Amino acid sequence: MTDDPLGLHGDTLHEECGVFGILGHPEAATLTALGLHALQHRGQEAAGIVSFDGRQFHSERHLGLVGDHFTDPGVVKRLPGHMAMGHVRYSTTGETILRNVQPLFAELEVGGIAIGHNGNFTNGLTLRRELIAGGAICQSTSDTEVVLHLIARSRKKGSDERFVDALGQVEGAFAMVAMTRTKLIGARDPNGIRPLVLGDLDGKPIFASETCALDIIGAKFVRDVKNGEVIVAEIQADGRITITSSMPFGQKPERLCLFEYVYFARPDSVVGGRSVYAARKNMGINLAKEHPVEADVVVPVPDGGTPAAIGYAQQSGIPFELGIIRNHYVGRTFIEPTQSIRAFGVKLKHSANRAEIDGKRVVLIDDSIVRGTTSIKIVQMIREAGAREVHIRVASPMIFHPDYYGIDTPDHDSLLANQHADVVAMARYIGADSLQFLSIDGLYQAVGGEARNNAAPQFTDHYFTGDYPTTLTDLTGRGKSDPKTISLMREAS
Ligand code: AMP
């Protein structure tokens, strides 16, 4: 229990997430567990699956990795039925508590409904305050729960109409999957900030955050759910599955989050019709064109920097080597409990491959710099391994602005780019001989083939430019310029 019913004092959570759902398959829960396993990079702290067997809903929600729980046949057996949906989440602040783990489920006037959300609302706190003031009883500190309340209060007839009515009242980013007794619904916010795809396994529809979740179960990619689109897959009384699509939120040009390409999505996924791997490699190619450097070896900061480093090496002709080796078996909890262990953090995750570094001029490639903590530790490690020079090239622009849509970028003052006057000062702080970032146009070209259209940007890039694609009611409404609200907005979800 919390004595903070609004979730305003520290145990609210900021989330990065993945969603998956399948309708009409006898092994729905097993396939969902596999899909979530492929989406594990989108959230490592908790996972949940809800299934429906024609009579009742079943729910299993656990802290930890998908494989920690959902490989247990006993757990999957407790999730019978021909439809299932699941969620993985990574909360970056506050306690991780089971009641925040999605899918969230509620029994409403229209029947049971489960929802799983990837993204963050920018009026979540405002709505939550209004709902609680009106008598709503919140079970979680997750702003996803406001959607359940809005569905419950909607005066529309059917569950899908109510779902649309509820989503029409939220602002921000959502790639959301909902499940009722007969329907699996996928929806994306009007800007399409977070991705969601429609897949097909032997005629059974699937929604998933990324195509890599379709690949793992041998499902076909059908298409992206469009920005602002709601797709309802329904199982009819005779077993037939129908699929209907609507655009209830009005049409806008899509503005997918560029950070999906920079860091977040898995490189083997195709997001918005573009290979994430190819985009990252192009970022490295453009980075080498924009910011060449004389060096002996190109070394990626694994895993995020690897595709860009391959591109940088190809373009520059400097040999690519794995100068840093990543240990893939580091659990988050292992690193976190005490300060003394945390200090070893970077060595648990990364270690220098001295044979490839000693005596060399190294170009380190990372996908992004946020606070600069990783860079400081890696540079020190590379120097200790004998590097003669360490140059950092970053495959995305400088981050100046916090994100409110589901990516873990911290508040304004914690961002490295806001703490120093220029790249020279940043390089000095990190301990690098030089530091350069990919330009915004270099990034746009790498992802979409064209420079940024400043009149109508093709993507959302607010962390680089400050150009937020939605209103920010929690910031500009009641909580105007209140720094506490700013951080709560980021933490809530
Ligand atoms: P920092 O150490 O704060 O500068 O963070 C940058 C490092 O974290 C880079 O190596 C990125 O690969 C990684 N990174 C970037 N964005 C995120 C994110 N949203 N969540 C977790 N890690 C990230």
Core attributes:
disordered N terminus; 493 residues; Rossmann fold; 20 helices; Glutamine Phosphoribosylpyrophosphate, subunit 1, domain 1; alpha+beta; 23 strands; 2 domains
Describe this structure in words.
The chain has 493 residues and is α+β, with helices and mostly antiparallel strands. It is built from 20 helices and 23 strands. The strands form six sheets. A seven-stranded antiparallel beta sheet has the order 3-2-4-1-10-9-11. Strands 5-6-7-8-12-13 form a six-stranded antiparallel beta sheet, with helices on one face. A four-stranded parallel beta sheet has the order 17-20-21-22, with helices on both faces. Helix 5 (145-153) crosses helix 6 and helix 9 runs antiparallel to helix 17 (440-448). The longest helix has 15 residues, at 276-290. The structure holds adenosine monophosphate. Adenosine monophosphate binds at residues 263, 301, 304, 366-375, 407-408.
What's the CATH topology label of the largest domain? Answer: Glutamine Phosphoribosylpyrophosphate, subunit 1, domain 1
Ranges with pLDDT <50 over ≥5 residues? 1-14, 333-337, 479-488
The general outline is globular
Number of helices: 20
- Report the average pLDDT across residues: 90
Return Rg in Å.
23 Å
Distance between the termini: 18 Å
Percent strand equals 15-25%
The molecules bound to the chains, other than polymers, are:
adenosine monophosphate
Largest sheet: 7 strands, antiparallel
- Order of strands in the sheet with the most strands? 3-2-4-1-10-9-11
CATH class term of the largest domain: Alpha Beta
